[in-house]
């Protein structure tokens, strides 16, 4: 790759972590990281693969003071036939491009993004756990590293990528989670930055997230900020409601993160013959639908869990359960089909899978 | 101060910057900074005064990935009788405490905040320019420096303070600025983090800020996010409208930063015999008020400018000017009175001024 300055010698590569069960999420960092710098004068400089290490920032830099930062979350999978696979990496590249534009940052060219991810995954591939469900979680991050105390876009950017080895999300079985419907605090609003993957959205979500956890729920389910009425998305997943053979998911209004798993489920479900509706859906409609047993299944979609079956929703103190709080059939079908595509076991009918290398 | 570990020897102190005119804002950094660390195990450790230098962050730290950061902006002034003064520092400490709580961060005890500011200002006092209008701009910052990739509050915090020497805001005369009323993009919404001084609010504001600048305006004037109708605040100032002898300013709904200058103007104006109303005020009411000449003056309030006379507002392509785009009498009176208190020239009737040291 001609955008890289230096390669790490092979003998510096550590052996990978072996204990799949204790992997968890975001606990085990690989050896290397990728960094690439942009300045007004020079544009994008050559990228570098180097040891994972702390980075040095001016305390007055725009990423620290004004949170000018966007990121992505994506995974690399080990396929039975020995390949290392990425899932829709160009869609992550595209989303980060858009996020960067919204935050007035110099975007990373999409092909550079994907190539950089591939180069880093290659050099860190020994860390890729081989059990199904495990993966490498890849975190590309673009930061405003220059100083502009007067609230302006940074004159300098750093694009870095690091990787953590992650365990199977459903290591204790494919079970339902329940969500806490937050009706006062909000995550984002139309006209804001809710559809960009930027740190500030997550900082803003912490308080409601802690509240949900204290009440015993796994994530928040956010409502729209204007009317506190329409369902938006969960803490780190988009949300689907299954009405018999029809899937309903909130339409992208501008305040919701356009999840790549969400898009994949929409396409896959349509391909499997299910009807899919993207529309506004109010919390009252959902609660009624659950009570009337019209909503038969619910699930969240996101890179971390792929598909997380949702059993209950707690709204204004009352928790209602769909499908007897059991994993639904369509949920399970979609999960299996999607995971099989991601792990290279089923045919890649949508052209979503990229091979990085072989192990 | 027993919360500090080490003092910088006096002979290490550089001489201060002499060229007041080219000071600008955020250009000239002083020699030293203050840092203080909090961990779950040890709580707040002793703070440290040290050379201003880049800090080291894990790329996966919560401040970088999820923008868990809050900050303050405040000034130190040189008084004619040779003292170094702070203006309402305990109010900055209180606001940062609240901001931190909203962002699920360990707040800095208010007395520690103020003492740390004082210690740093003392050691950097040779940088304090002596011309009226100039000052030290102080930037206390609290950051989530620990790693928690799973979107949780940081297990570690760093409280740092740094200082820049700043020139007079109105070095080319006390003139009006014009604001661009943004009617699509929004800064914050009720239920969000608009009333916290957190980086994400500023990242979200960059795009509209650039747009306003390109159109030739100095800042954005934000409308509420629910109805795009009620005036909130400007890019880095709160806003006041003068109707004859009455001042009207948007009430604090939860999405507006509760400015310390705003509060000072409210108290000072009331003391001077003006009527002050804090209430919802729509952009239509303001445009009509300007056209009908009921609104006689407008001004913004913030630490940077103290009071910035506002001449025109551009709304939906039309710019309307109040008071013939000249600086209003009440605006000027309030500016002079407030600045005189800040610089220790007028009696400190409200108990707002803290003496740090003498030069
Ligand atoms: C807020 C939020 N919504 C939705 C998603 C799902 O997006 P994706 O499917 O691209 O991972 C994520 C990220 O994982 C998220 O953080
Ligand atoms: C968004 C915003 N509003 C208002 C203000 C004014 O606040 P203060 O008077 O405390 O400086 C500021 C900060 O300067 C600000 O950034």
Q: What does this protein look like?
A:
Chains A, B: The modification N6-(pyridoxal phosphate)lysine is found at residue 197. Chains A, B: It catalyses: L-valine + 2-oxoglutarate = 3-methyl-2-oxobutanoate + L-glutamate; L-leucine + 2-oxoglutarate = 4-methyl-2-oxopentanoate + L-glutamate; L-isoleucine + 2-oxoglutarate = (S)-3-methyl-2-oxopentanoate + L-glutamate. Chains A, B: Keywords: Amino-acid biosynthesis, Aminotransferase, Branched-chain amino acid biosynthesis, Pyridoxal phosphate, Transferase. Chains A, B: This is Branched-chain-amino-acid aminotransferase. Chains A, B: Its cofactor is pyridoxal 5'-phosphate. Two copies of one chain form a homodimer. By secondary structure, chain A is of the alpha+beta class. Chain A folds into two domains: 10-166, D-amino Acid Aminotransferase, Chain A, domain 1 (2-Layer Sandwich), CATH 3.30.470; 177-342, D-amino Acid Aminotransferase, subunit A, domain 2 (D-amino Acid Aminotransferase, Chain A, domain 2), CATH 3.20.10. Chain A contains eight helices and 20 strands. Chain A has helices at 62-66, 89-102, 110-123, 199-203, 206-214, 260-271, 283-291, 329-342, and strands at 28-29, 32-39, 43-44, 48-51, 55-57, 69-71, 74-78, 83-87, 135-144, 156-166, 177-182, 219-223, 231-234, 238-243, 246-250, 275-279, 297-302, 306-315, 318-321, 353-358. The longest helix of chain A is centred in the first third of the chain and has 14 residues, at 89-102. The radius of gyration of chain A is 21 Å and the shape is globular. The two termini of chain A are 20 Å apart. Chains A and B meet through strand 5, helix 1, strand 9, strand 10 and helix 4 of A and strand 5, helix 1, strand 9, strand 10 and helix 4 of B. The structure holds pyridoxal-5'-phosphate (2 copies). One pyridoxal-5'-phosphate is lined by residues 73, 233, 236-238, 257, 259-262, 301-304 of chain B.
């Amino acid at each position: 790759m001609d955008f890289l300055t230096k390669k790490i010698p092979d003998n510096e590569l550590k052996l990978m972590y072996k204990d799949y069960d204790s992997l968890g999420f975001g606990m085990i960092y690989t050896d290397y990281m990728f960094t690439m710098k942009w300045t007004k004068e020079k544009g994008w400089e050559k990228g570098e693969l180097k040891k994972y290490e702390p980075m040095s920032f001016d305390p007055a830099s725009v990423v620290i003071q004004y949170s000018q930062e966007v990121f992505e979350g994506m995974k690399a999978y080990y396929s039975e036939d020995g390949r290392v696979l990425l899932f829709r990496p160009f869609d992550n590249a595209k989303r980060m491009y858009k996020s960067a534009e919204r935050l007035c940052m110099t975007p990373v060219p999409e092909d550079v993004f994907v190539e950089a991810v591939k180069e880093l995954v290659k050099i860190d591939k020994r860390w890729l756990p081989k059990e199904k469900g495990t993966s490498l979680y890849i975190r590309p991050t673009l930061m405003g590293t220059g100083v502009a105390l007067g609230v302006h876009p940074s004159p300098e950017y750093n694009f870095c990528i690091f990787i953590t080895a992650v365990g199977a999300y459903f290591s204790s079985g494919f079970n339902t989670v329940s969500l806490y419907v937050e009706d006062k605090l909000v995550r984002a609003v139309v006209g804001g930055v809710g559809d960009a993957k930027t740190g500030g959205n997550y900082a803003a979500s912490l308080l409601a997230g802690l509240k949900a956890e204290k009440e015993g729920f796994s994530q928040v389910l956010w409502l729209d900020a204007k009317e506190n009425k329409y369902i938006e998305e969960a803490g780190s997943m988009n949300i689907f409601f299954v009405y018999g053979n029809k899937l309903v998911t909130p339409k992208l209004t501008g305040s919701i993160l356009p999840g790549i798993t969400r898009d994949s489920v929409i396409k896959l479900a349509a391909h499997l013959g299910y009807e899919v509706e993207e529309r506004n859906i109010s919390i009252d409609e959902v609660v009624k639908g659950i009570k009337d047993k019209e909503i038969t299944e619910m699930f969240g979609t996101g890179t971390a869990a792929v598909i997380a079956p949702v059993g209950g929703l707690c709204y204004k103190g009352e928790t209602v359960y769909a499908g007897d709080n059991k994993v639904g059939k369509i949920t399970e079908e979609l999960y299996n089909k999607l995971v099989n595509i991601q792990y290279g076991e089923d045919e890649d009918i949508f052209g979503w899978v990229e091979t990085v290398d072989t192990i």
